[in-house]
Predict the structure of Pectate lyase superfamily protein.
Amino acid sequence: MFHGSALLSVRTFVYLFLILSFICCSYLNRVKDPSHWQVTDALPSYGRGIDLPGKRYMSLINGDMLHDVVVTGDNGTIDGQGLVWWDRFNSHSLEYSRPHLVEFVSAENVIVSNLTFLNAPAYTIHSVYCRNLYIHRVTANTCPESPYTIGIVPDSSENVCIQESSINMGYDAISLKSGWDEYGLSYARPTANVQIRNVYLRAASGSSISFGSEMSGGISDVEVSDAHIHNSLSGIAFRTTNGRGGYIKEIDISNIHMVNVGTAFLANGSFGTHPDSGFDENAYPLVSHIRLHDIVGENISTAGYFFGTKESPFTSILLSNISLSIKNSASPADSWQCSYVDGSSEFVVPEPCLELKSFDSYYGRAEAL
Ligand SMILES: *[C@@H]1O[C@H](CO)[C@@H](O)[C@H](O)[C@H]1NC(C)=O
Ligand SMILES: *[C@@H]1O[C@H](CO)[C@@H](O)[C@H](O)[C@H]1NC(C)=O
Ligand SMILES: *[C@@H]1O[C@H](CO)[C@@H](O)[C@H](O)[C@H]1NC(C)=O
Ligand SMILES: *[C@@H]1O[C@H](CO)[C@@H](O)[C@H](O)[C@H]1NC(C)=O
Ligand SMILES: *[C@@H]1O[C@H](CO)[C@@H](O)[C@H](O)[C@H]1NC(C)=O
């Protein structure tokens, strides 16, 4: 597991904030005229843009192959002026997929700290094919109505640490990803060794913490602790679908406080679409060895949905010391719904479904693929 020591190798400290403010001004002038907006190739692990097939608009701030860099700004603000992009997304008038606010591609040893990011067109910080990324004391906000805006997206990246940050998004607050179907499988870059700690999260129409649905390169060895999740459609979500391949495994989530959340845990094995028709129907994802413990929830509508599929059931889900107060708890039997999942539970209120009590205790690591 990553403990931040790798970052001590940061050699040069480049304070980019002034440069960023300058880029922002030219960005704000450009944004009104997308024909001036630069277009770039799709990422190889996706094969196309996220919103639309084909190319995508270049991000506002790009860090391609950056290394040993600190992006900081005394809590200064960078405003992505997302509204025009959200309107274009909603009215289906985008020519290419929306730009992100910040994107690091193949970067190494990067610190982003003491900055506030507002109104990202799509993702606020997207890190792809990166190593050693430390995000610290960052605030990222978009309004609840903004379509599919996501805060921080570690994507096919290793050794990522997100700490002491506050993220309030239209869709997901933090989403871990690793490529899409056949493109992600052949690129084969996992997201691994991620620590998320001391974060305040809100996800109006998605999930405060999500895994997938693009996870074909695999996601493993993730620790989330001390998260405060509020006013979110779901708290923690695992999303995948047959055709993805890949895995989500060795995930440990603890010390979570949830308030006003629709579904506390949502694991959906039939979620999301395919990039094109070239995907392999027999590429089944593995979701295994997920540990959720020491969690309290208030004003929760539904405790958990765990829906694996017949071809790829979810296995070894361990729940312990979880106490959720369900509003309108007239029918606690409906608080959990499960199919094609196995796991164990101790000290869980309300009482989980039988599938999640199918063996006595958690065991071993998931077998390697
Ligand atoms: C940074 O700014 C945001 C709003 O712009 C504010 O909510 C937050 O408290 C500030 N953080 C610090 C450490 O000053
Ligand atoms: C961010 O601010 C905190 C508190 O002022 C400070 O300790 C930390 O060093 C700052 N981070 C960077 C990278 O300057
Ligand atoms: C409970 O959560 C719902 C949203 O899930 C919210 O609308 C409602 O105001 C919350 N109630 C309280 C008492 O906070
Ligand atoms: C799982 O995802 C599918 C496809 O998006 C959706 O139709 C279904 O309602 C989801 N199930 C749950 C429990 O959210
Ligand atoms: C159960 O979890 C709560 C936090 O949600 C924690 O304070 C408490 O110590 C845990 N109990 C045990 C027995 O670990």
About this structure: The radius of gyration is 20 Å.
